[in-house]
Amino acid sequence: MEEGKKEINLDSILESLGPYGRYNLLNFVLLLYPVLLSSFFECGFIFEAQEQNYRCEVDGCELRFNDTSWLQYAIPLDVEKQRPQSCFMYEQANVTSQQCLPEDFINKTVPCESFVYENDYSFVKEFNLVCQEWKRALVGTIHNSGMFVAMLFTGAISDRFGRKVAVGFSSCASFIFGFARSFSPSYLFFVAMHFLEAGFGGGLYPSAYVFIVELVGLKQRVIVSAMCNMTFVIGVVLIALLAWVVDNWRTYILILYCPATIVFVYVWFMNESARWLLSKGRRDEAIDVLKRAAKINNLDPRSLDLDALGDPLLKPQNQTGDKKSQMYKAIRSGIIWKRVAICSFLWMTCSLVYYGFSINSVSLSSNRYVSFMLVTLVEIPAYIVVVIVLDKYGRKKTLLTTYLTCTVMSLLFAFLPRSDYWSIPLYLVGKWSVTLAYSSVYIYVSEVFPTNMRQTLISVCSTAGRIGSLIAPLTPLLSYYHKSMPTVIFGAMCFISSTLVMMLPETRNMRLPDTIEEAEHLSRMKSKNGDTTD
């Protein structure tokens, strides 16, 4: 750069390139596809290992195909679910009788010896998991345990080797272990593949998300985040539709995971994130990427004045330290530690409540697929609203309002008598509010940490947040003790999070911090609209 020439920051150049030019639109398509796939991989287990209806096989009664009246005196009624109990039947007084009459049974329950299944191709039947509900629920927890590992694992790859390497690695790992799982010979092999697939491939969404966010300037971050979130929702709806049509769980897995091979093929032909290249001091490569982007957008690269590109990371005082010194600064920074701790809890709350609402929704009505899709589709208006409210009212006010709304809806749903007139609307508003909070947290966390450690620190928060998603698959089991217990827990977590939000800085209309010093400075700055940070 010529001495005395005014520096231009990357955000200004990205604005000049045009946030919705051909270059970015092409990259949006290429990166939103792995975002879509990540919804398959993160939520597919909900229907892959879904609850199955089954009951005892009663000798002498099963031949009465068109008559099920015998069930009332052969098998006890599950009062809450209004269907025959799954694991017990009345003892047969005369096992040799083929008449299946009331007098053939006595008022004493005994465990089932064999079963009749609603779906003959289910995961539960094949691995003989009847009357072992905890094993079925454990699948989601094991999967999310792998996701817990993946966040730090993929974050380190992304920050050290680049965004596209992280996307390619995650998609390849997801395919390999997902494909292997579809041929599982046993339950233990099945859950092992779940853990490995999530552990090595679970960072697909955050890797693609960070890649997309770094393509645009500060004014487009919220819109781009909403695009990612709505793409994820579309994927989750497709999961429910697929599960509705495909009964065989092995075929279901193959259909979900085979498309990952496409990402692994084309990602290596994409340009690396210019922002990441700058954060690594590779200024010349970043300029080459920006020149190619300008040409694709039919712009003259000379008009962007790329030789004047500056970045705090390239200044002498920031070149003296190596990666270890940056980590040392982060460890010594009380401000950074406080943000990591609070953002981790906010993320944990969102994960627990978001996935908890989704998983428990299958029991909301008689058709589990429709219920699930309804609770999923309510997320779309949340992602539209978030684009408006985050920029208009700021991050803190939005998070505070949504957490409190979810608190109120959860507690009302828990304690009001169940009725279709208000129970389902309360549940949907609760899911809508936590979705809005989740989207806001994802955007907010990417704005409070520096570029050179952004993916790593986001991964730390996301990893801690995965504790919530570990617990979420087990929350339906709590309803066996009290039907309102899951939503009471959801409400309590949201209330605590609403109080923690007040301890964080506002980041509305502020450019992404590139160094730890800039990230710390957020707490002493005011936004361009005059919002005071704490």
Break the fold down into its secondary structure elements and pairings.
Elements: H1 10-17, H2 22-43, H3 45-48, E1 54-56, H4 71-74, E2 77-78, E3 83-84, E4 88-92, E5 105-111, E6 115-117, H5 123-126, H6 133-161, H7 163-181, H8 187-201, H9 204-213, H10 221-245, H11 249-257, H12 260-266, H13 274-279, H14 283-296, H15 316-319, H16 323-332, H17 334-360, H18 368-377, H19 379-393, H20 395-415, H21 423-447, H22 454-471, H23 475-478, H24 485-500, H25 516-521
Helix pairs in contact: 2-9, 2-10, 6-7, 6-8, 6-22, 7-8, 7-9, 7-11, 7-12, 10-18, 10-19, 17-21, 17-22, 17-24, 19-20, 19-21, 20-21, 20-24
Number of strands: 6
Shape: elongated
Termini separation comes to 37 Å
Please, how many domains?
3
Enumerate the spans where pLDDT stays under 50 for 5 or more consecutive residues. 316-321, 526-530
Task: Using the CA coordinates, give the radius of gyration.
Answer: 26 Å
- CATH-assigned homologous superfamily of the largest domain: MFS general substrate transporter like domains
Main location: membrane
Protein name: Organic cation transporter protein-like
Pfam families: MFS_1
Organism: Bombyx mandarina (Wild silk moth)
